[in-house]
Input
Amino acid sequence: MKGENSKIILKVKNISKSFPGVQALKNVSLDFKPGEIHAVVGENGAGKSTLMKIIAGVHQADSGEIIYQDAKVVWRDPEDAIKSGIITIFQELSIIPNLSVAENIFLGREILNGPFVSFREMNKEAKKFLQIFDLKVNPARPAGTYSVAIQQMIEITRAISRAAKVIIMDEPTSSLSEAEAHKLLQTMKRLSESGVCVIFISHRLEEVLEIADRISILRDGELIGTLNREEFDRSKVVEMMVGRKIDQFFIKSDHERGEEILRVENLTGYGFRNVSFNLYSGEILGFAGLVGAGRTELMESIFGFRKPISGKIFVEGKEVKVNHPNDAIKLGMGFVTEDRKRLGLILIHTVRENIAYVNLDIIKSKLSFANKRKEINLAKQLVREFNIKTPSIEQKVLYLSGGNQQKVVLAKWMPKKPKILILDEPTRGIDVVAKAEIYKLMNELALQGIGVIMVSSELPEILQMSDRIAVMSEGELVDIIPGKGATQEQVMHLATLKRKYEKIT
Amino acid sequence: MAKRGSFLAIMRKIMAIKEAGVFLILIILMAFLSIFAESFLTLDNILTIVLNMSFIAIMTYGMTLVIITAGIDLSVGSILGLSGVIIGVLVIDHGWNPFLAVLAALGVASLMGFTNGILITKARLVPFVSTLGMLSIGRGLAYVLSGGWPISGFSEAFTFHGLGKLGIFPMPVVYMAILGVIMHFFLKNTIIGRRIYAVGGNPEAATLMGIKKDRILILVYTLSGFFSGFSGFLMTAWLGVSQANAGQGYELDVIAATIIGGTSLMGGEGSIIGSLLGAAIMAVLRNGLILMEVSSFWQQVTIGTVIVLAIMFDQFRRVRVS
Output
């Protein structure tokens, strides 16, 4: 063990941290080596983020110490950690879209020529760093004109340019498609090969198992264990994360396909062209594709949130005009949005209120007054049925975990008894237990005869859950294939049919 | 010990109520003034304060709705002035029945608010810009209609609504109370009220929940115009004179009262009770400073300071509670 010590760049010893009402971390000790990709996994609320924030100097530990490059360190603020070479790339990107790529990379450390910023120097320097990752990005172009994946790599480039020794990546792939995530993982691999220690937090177990050298598992603020590459095993990791076995991750029973309830004919709008498909009651229709394939735009147009340019929509055989989500809801549609924080919830309002808004007509009594008792009962009932973990229905949804927020988004549609339910990336950024619950729920909904559309960039869930899979590429619906027997390769092939990877100037 | 514990628990519960912080500030302010200004805590003086606050308070009813939707209405003072002038011109110059004249003024005031709503939703102007324009238009029209001269000579039946009393309460206070109760229930307990909060909390999410955002916005600006007009009616009745410059600069007092009352400029939060308390704080402070013979120049400084302190205190309380 002594020999190993010299190879350790960062070590946390007996770290404990509590927030009002929660013990976030209990006596956690971990070490990190240069050149390794060290994944930290756990359910939401397991303490991963808190641990990372302590390492990055955002939070101070209540007790315990951080040993960095063989010396005990105390970070007063994140800047301390950054200066010493520990750089965090957060889930929410800190790219400023209207500044150029080079300006973003050198933000706060602009290269000066006398009192003026030297853009020429900065662009030249930026290019050098970008080349490390084979990124053919124009450093003078606004960063916002590139895709999220590229922006993320620009952030990583910024970290490298600051001579980072430890890079913490918090859920970096959660908003990327499978192909883009793959690109990012390659970047991470390259980073680690150059001797940087990469600490990687992700809910996507597949990619963790694929790329990590070691996996540390946290549960309820405690370190459960660290596995070396040769010990990796999916079910073992899951078991360590949740403390019990999850028998069935994807739950899907055979359900009968009913009548056609939705038909879309030649729908064209911003981001998609000429899309035609139909949906039967009691089926789960998966929508696969890369990010930017136009799936979200298509769904938002069907739901009346965007205006399509041309095309027809039929509900139960009748042509309908959907000019506002209100029309869609009246026709029996429900929509669980991709970005639940921005579009699915009113974060500063309570669980009860968020559930009530869609159901105001149900809780309405005489003279348009809201019946408070009905409203409370409705919220309580849904919290119970959906197993939403919240101290009370009066809790602001802001304070719920991702999985529980998602359950609120989903639950609120149920009293409306929708016939068509559109789920856009329903399991993004939520932990395995909540994921399994959502799958179970989708299955139940299909059994009840609801037609479910599931947009997802995670191939395993597309393949496991869908009765039929519609694959979109660059705004066009390429093909609809039966879910049974479909393979990853088949779907990826269709999804990339037209794609000529990031067009870079 | 047990007693103390339960006392603390009760205090915490009280503090968790949104309006508690503002209420506490009001009580402290009043306690302070009753010590340092002799005639402060007399029934007459309290009634004077309540009368003084009523014009602003009624306008906060509209402003609260507007600010809950994360908007702002700068035109309220001008609409007040215009509404008063319309009543004056119609009743005195054209011999209209005062009741019909008031209805006409309220109609015009509502129409101005409605126009704000249309400009914001259909022409997609920022509320600040749209209502800033309306501020100038409203005031300008008030001068055009009146020629800049005060209009007086109202009947007693009309001025009763400003000068009259119901029991010990001046009529404007009675109106403030009645409208306050209606608006409180409208905002908290009707589904339209709930939609106003939803739109303010997150307009896009609210739209996806099937709420017609534009209609809600048009409604709140129309109501804001209506209440400004109503305040204009009461003020004209109280003064017995229509003046084109009436209510000049009131928008700032109305906004300040609403924000002190805990309505968040970020939208999605706020209450009528809070705004009433906010208006009360402003009125108590003005009154107290006059009683203490503080120069009017220093009054402004003090009021500004209290606004900032009150909002800081409220934010501190919120952080503690959450």
